[in-house]
């Protein structure tokens, strides 16, 4: 299959504005090529000069032939640069700093895609809006187990993006990687979020992330930014904002908007959390292959979740140390991956995928941080239940509108029919009105009488009760009254506050 589309534009990792044709850099990774080229040219000229001098000498002084072996010795430096396939990388220079955009640090943006056709245009709108210099960002997509036209649309959108006449739009190098994992779980919202499916689903996701990262990470990358395709709203300066913190691994808070009838908004990514004693004790009791997934009543971990600590007016720069991380939007230094941290597709400390990644990074001494008051909004996908409810609401709205219409028509008809003021109807109307007034008056009198009676009875009863109570109190005087357990309630109320059974997700 023809897999290499030639983009008319783009910025390779070694490409600066040096006026060389772009096509030369499209498919081959050739860092420092510009330097090599210049050096090669100089060397070739020097070589040509030497050869000419040599033949000149031979003609003029045949005795020079005796010195031939000496001339055959080339300097080691020349040999070094004559190896066409040699690449030299200094990893000391790509460790990642807080102001990467000023130091021209390259970012690898990784996005796993599965049946993501409907979200791709939105994702590319985000790409266009990123303020981190696009020529410093290389894109990597993994397309797996897709039944829709994810790959076709992806190619089309990439071509459009890279051909954009605005020189600030085209990105760096692009990798589209295809790999199926034989997804056993259905992709609809219910099966994806069901508890039983979580462990195996997360392990497959972990494999997908590893395939993508190991295939696309180059020695020129200082940072790796993981971004899901179904993010709806995010600050355009997100990469710089996260980078400024200069952490090894950092994530924002991820919420999702909801329809008004569901409360307007909701924490979405429950995979960013701090470890708790309860969860550690729970982990001890589990089988060695077990994977704890957050946000399900089956595993009550009582961990502090980044999501629930959000204050819309809080300081967006506030940091919180976390252990598990969610995968919607992760910025990590490339050195974390180079050091061997990955997304475990097995139970690592009873966790897999991004949560396992956070734990592993922490275990290797890297800093793992979340920003509770800096929020990214995930797309809201209604569940089956929500859809049904919405349908019911729609039906109700329609029937109410229909009723309203019918009532209006009836009124119109009545008005038209009885327009004549001298008609019998007017007289009848007056008669009816008078009769109604009388009836109402009688009813009101009856009601007042009844009220009076009730008031009298109530007063009598109250007096009687007061007397009885007084007598009782007399009996109990001197006895100590114990109140039934009030101590345990405060603890319980704290627990009740935790919303459980919410959907955790990293996709
Ligand atoms: C990108 O920026 C434009 C202009 O500021 C804005 O209208 C649009 O909503 C943004 N797109 C996304 C996906 O954030």
From TrEMBL:
Q: Where are the transmembrane segments?
A: 42-60
GO MF annotation list: alpha-1,6-mannosyltransferase activity
Gene3D superfamilies, A to Z:
Spore Coat Polysaccharide Biosynthesis Protein SpsA, Chain A
Check the record and name the InterPro entries matching this protein. Answer: Mannan_Polymerase_Subunit, Nucleotide-diphossugar_trans
What is one cellular component GO term in this UniProt entry?
mannan polymerase complex
Source organism of this protein record: Endocarpon pusillum
List all Basic and acidic residues biased stretches: 391-473
The Swiss-Prot or TrEMBL record describes its family as follows: Belongs to the ANP1/MMN9/VAN1 family.
What SUPFAM superfamilies would the database entry show? Nucleotide-diphospho-sugar transferases
Coarse class of the primary localization is Golgi
Keywords from UniProt, A to Z, are: Golgi apparatus, Membrane, Signal-anchor, Transmembrane, Transmembrane helix
Put simply, this protein is called Mannan polymerase II complex ANP1 subunit
Q: How does the protein associate with the membrane? A: Single-pass type II membrane protein
Which stretches are tagged as biased composition: Polar residues?
A: 481-491
Keyword Nucleotide-binding attributed: no
Q: Where in the cell is it found?
A: Golgi apparatus membrane
| GO biological process terms on file | cell wall mannoprotein biosynthetic process; protein N-linked glycosylation
Lineage, broadest ranks? Eukaryota, Fungi, Dikarya, Ascomycota, Pezizomycotina
